[in-house]
Design a protein that fits this description.
With about 575 residues, the chain is mainly α. The protein has helices at about 1-25, 35-45, 55-65, 75-100, 105-115, 120-125, 130-145, 150-165, 170-180, 185-200, 205-210, 225-230, 245-255, 260-275, 290-310, 315-325, 325-355, 365-370, 375-380, 390-400, 415-430, 450-455, 460-475, 480-485, 485-495, 510, 540-545, 550-565; strands spanning about 410, 440, 500, 515-520, 525. The longest helix is centred in the middle third of the chain and has 27 residues, at about 325-355.
Length: about 575
């Protein structure tokens, strides 16, 4: 027994080191476009991120930043290294779980299948929550596959997986499959429920973080109503979306096929069919041969359904996020592959099973090669090498250099905050630069908690915010009218003493007739803009940035700026 544990530990350690050596050189040197800046800022100040708050990432990320502070990596680089560690831990935990079940060769094959898969790589080299969620699901899987899983520990790990990302709730069938076949069921289920509640307890930290009044406190969840709304993501609403069958069809076609997730599922198909027909070999290295394949398949299917539900709108941004949400399902598909190969390994015997690593030669061709080629990689933002991604931090640095002292910088359109606002937020909070600037997100002005924060931090805006609230009340439930209800605030700001710049220009109606002209990387009222001399200062950063939907949107904004400069 000790020898087996030692072998499993060595296999896990080697898998971790190999995966880490693969991921670290490919990680981004700092934050990237989209949510990275906001998540990094929340971790730096131990604040509250966008719904549902992601307290596990915030707490762990904040601790990680402080532990690595002596290395002087910078907050962005430190957090990308955390994602790489989580990705490597996911591979190591999968290998350890399969090796502990007797599948030595199959563990290596399944581990490499997971490592070469585009979704895991793409989410393990940027500041995001998905690699952490995948690691939490892999740890729960490792515990579930143990000979005698403890219900309290297993429930706690499933709960932590949900805290890491709500889509990980699909891992619950794993816990049930591990516990129901053994022991008094009622007692074990009660312990599982207690562990689940304990694992979900980090959500209770959100009000504590809000009461600290951090510089980033999305949703201000300091009351029961706001806390529950934040957890339920009520701010986002349901929005337009495709019917469920079309959503799942889109997910299977655009996630499973291009990125090689079908390969692990196909490898585990023989074991699944044997389980359904109850013909699994008694020598198969699984404690419950007829239950585990079905449980893994059910959990993977549920995870995919939750991923489709969390991003119902099939636009480019939603598709890019869908890759990360489906990552826990990929972990379970790889586990299903490993169990299938382990059963095959047990039947072949030790000598013939040594031929299984020949599958390693096919994996790069069948999986990663597809992820690297074609329009799918661009459409989903699946960049497998982010080592040259400096656009977000370059933009923020140039914007801070361009803004005069005491400026107000406004992210105008819904979605532009991800491109322009979050990098500015990260630079101000995580790096402590330009505290004199007031950053405003127009898309959040309709939220009462956001207006309360602006009143507290900028008392001079109280009259303008009161006028904004009257506009919102007059707009009623009309979403279009609500989005336009910022004219009074913009007029008050533009007529005030502080310079006002925009990351992207609003329509003329919102400005009350004021004209905006492009400066270096920002937009300013006519007569205040400072235009750069010579070439575009962001040209080099754009050329080195990996292709993604957000890069395309960034380019569109730059093209609009250039058109405005023409006479």
């Amino acid at each position: 027994m000790r020898a087996e544990r030692r072998t499993t530990a060595i296999a896990s350690a080697l898998a971790f080191l190999a995966a880490l050596a693969f991921l670290l050189p490919r990680r981004a040197p700092g934050i990237t476009l989209e949510d990275a800046g906001e998540l990094g800022a929340a971790a730096a100040c131990w604040g509250v991120a966008h719904p549902p708050g992601y307290p596990l990432f915030v707490l762990l990320g904040g601790l990680w930043l402080r532990l690595l502070e002596p290395l002087r990596l910078g907050p962005g680089a430190a957090l990308t290294s955390l994602s790489a560690v989580c990705g490597a831990a996911t591979v190591a935990l999968l290998v350890g779980a399969l090796a502990a079940r007797g599948g030595r060769w199959s563990a290596g094959v399944a581990g490499l299948a997971l490592l070469q898969a585009g979704p895991l790589v793409s989410q393990s080299i940027v500041v995001e929550v998905y690699a952490l969620a995948a690691a939490a699901v892999a740890l729960a899987l490792r515990t579930a596959l143990a000979p005698d899983p403890r219900p309290l520990r297993l429930g706690c790990l499933v709960g932590l997986s949900i805290v890491a990302h709500p889509a990980a709730a699909g891992a619950l069938p794993l816990a049930l499959a591990a516990l129901l076949p053994a022991g008094p069921r009622a007692r074990r289920l009660l312990r599982l429920a207690a562990g689940l509640l304990l694992g979900l307890s980090p959500f209770l930290v959100l009000p504590l973080l809000a009461w600290r009044d951090p510089p980033l406190c999305w949703g201000q969840p300091d009351t029961w109503a706001r806390w529950s709304e934040h957890l339920l993501r009520s701010q986002y609403g349901s929005g337009p979306g495709l019917p469920w069958p079309e959503r799942l069809s889109l997910l299977s076609e655009l996630i499973l096929r291009p990125f090689g997730l079908w390969l692990p599922a196909a490898l585990g198909l023989p074991l699944l069919l044997a389980a359904v027909r109850r013909r699994a070999a008694p020598t198969a290295p699984v404690r419950s041969p007829s239950g585990w394949p079905l449980a893994l398949s059910a959990a993977a299917a549920l995870l995919l359904c939750l991923a489709a539900w969390s991003h119902p709108v099939p636009d480019d941004d939603a598709r890019a996020r869908l890759v990360g949400s489906a990552l826990p399902a990929l972990v379970l598909c790889a586990a299903l592959a490993g169990l299938g190969l382990a059963g095959l390994e047990a039947r072949l015997g030790p000598r013939r099973a040594a031929l299984l690593p020949l599958l390693l030669l096919l994996l790069p061709l069948l999986g990663r090669g597809q992820a690297l080629a074609g329009p799918d990689a661009r459409l989903f933002g699946l960049a497998l090498d982010q080592s040259g991604a400096r656009l977000a931090e370059s933009y923020a640095a140039l914007a801070f250099e361009e803004a005069p002292p005491g400026s107000v910088l406004i992210a105008n359109r819904l979605g532009s905050t991800d491109l322009f606002g979050f990098p500015l937020l990260f630079r101000q909070i995580a790096l402590g630069q330009r505290p004199d600037l007031l950053l405003i997100d127009r898309s959040l002005l309709r939220a009462p908690w956001y207006r309360e924060q602006l009143r507290a931090r900028e008392p001079a805006l109280i009259p303008a915010l009161a006028a904004l609230e009257r506009e919102l009340e007059a707009a009623g439930a009309d979403p279009a009218a609500q989005r336009r209800a910022s004219r009074a605030l913009f007029t008050a700001l533009l007529s005030g003493p502080r310079p006002v710049g925009f990351t992207d220009p609003p329509g003329p109606a919102a400005l009350g007739g004021a004209e905006l002209v492009p400066g270096g990387v920002l937009w300013w009222p006519a007569g205040r803009a400072v235009r750069p001399a010579g070439a575009d200062p962001l040209a080099a950063a754009i050329a080195a940035e990996p292709a993604s939907p957000w890069l395309e949107r960034f380019r569109e904004e730059l093209e609009a700026r250039e058109r405005a400069r023409r006479p």
